[in-house]
Amino acid sequence: MSDIKELTLQQIRAGLQEGQFSATELAESSLAAIERQEPKLHAFLEVTPELALRLAKNVDDKKARGEILPPLAGVSCGVKDSILVEGVPCTAGSRMLEGYLAPEDATAVANLKKAGAILVGKTNLDEFSMGASTENSAFGPSRNPHDTEKVPGGSSGGSAVAVASGECVLSLGADTGGSIRQPAAFCGVVGLKPTYGSVSRYGLIALASSLDQIGPLARTVEDAEELFLAIAGKDERDATSVDFVAQNRDREGGLKGLRVGVPAEYFGEGLDKEVEQAVRSALEHMEKNGAKLVEVHLPHTPYALAAYYVINMSEASANLARYDGLRYGKGKKGRTLEEGYLESRGEGLGEEVKRRIMLGTYALSAGYHDAYYLKAQKIRTLLSQDFAKAFEKADVLCGPVSPFLPFAFGERTKSPLEMYIVDVYTVPVNLAGLPAISLPVGMSGTGLPVGMQAIAPPFREDLLFSVGRAIENS
Amino acid sequence: MISKEQVQHIAQLARIKLQGKEVECFQVEFAQILEYFEVLGKLDVSQVQPMTHTSAKENSWREDIGEPFSSELRKKMFSQFSSSADNFLKVPRVFSHE
Q1: CATH for A60
Q2: Do B17 and A325 touch (CB under 8 A)?
């Protein structure tokens, strides 16, 4: 059987139908790739061979009974370790949840199982999804398969590494401020942050509830689209999920006549030259294929990062109050209830998590709420209006995913702000609730991947996939 | 500049016991981050409505129907709680004599 790294969903489907290989063989191939590469990459926090082989057998049994195979049958899939898989440990990269077993499946995971996917393990992340490099994982970082001295990006770094290295075909990540798109860019794969509300967040360990969204990482645009279609839709258990029908239509005529907005603010000071070059040449390619490039402005961009971090930290401080040493896992026992809280959280939580919880607590406290949280929410309105105005002139917006190439371990850990700035082009999208995709558009001189971000109006993921296919075929 | 006492106070509000040099480190970092947040004050937003959510144009309603909770799921959830006895979750005393 050929390496699963070479296989697309379409080829897997055809191969299974024609009996070239079984789902069990596909699962075994993925598990073998994991075993071979994990010592070097550390993409996974937990590998689940028993679950994988059981799910694969279900698919093979279905095939033997002559049933129609579901869309993701036999496709190996990693799941970010902030998303629950029944009976499997779920740590969110934190000591706080060490030993915690998920009692049920997240809705997105239940949908994956229904679609016939083979879950091979839980992927590494920055603790509670707070970070852009996986260096904040309590269990050690993942490594970029293109250069193991460089970070894979984060927080869904393990999900990106697993797909890029061929340990599995697809993976689920979650994106609060760039956590799918940025690692996808750093590892040279496709990553989609769907419209807020299009995928259920039930069973996702929350960071910032008004920003979090589960989404796919894959090696091809079509594979990412198939995974998105399998997990999208209204869920009674997530009141913010939206009833809509995801479109899988390709744009007629490819890029012909498509108005591509280029936000001037995304090509400013601090943008790496090689990143800019790769993105600009992708834009030129789009123009050659019939797209119309138009300059647009998102004037409130300089305020986005500060507004984002105020909202992120404030919502995180409330969401993470539940990790008290009692509710989940086994915490410290103090002489009093409060002492137990203080000790459990003091020992169980990592530095960045403490930093954000404390700053969020500060920003929400009496006397500061209006100066920080309320102001940030107002700037959120302005950023959203910026996008709405830009979409009057353009169908999609394109720019870099991150201003930087994958950086070395330790390069940005000295000051928190150094790490926060990695998200500067991705956070506005979450604040506005829009869909955006990260597409590989080339390599630096040193062999590191560069990603381009395409942003669309709400629920127009179909436009992003059309752009993605055109870029892929260049 | 935020003081060491303020850092300790916030940590207490957030129910986090700080260890070793954390107070000193956070004091310096919080000052840097809060200084960065000052950019928010440079914009006049007095006439702008705050945005709390992107999808919630109206409330999400459902029928008020009770559903039986799976006893198997209950058992699994209990097993992950720090302590339980006789189908009750056990927590330390909330009001202590101290």
Answers
A1: 3.90.1300.10
A2: no
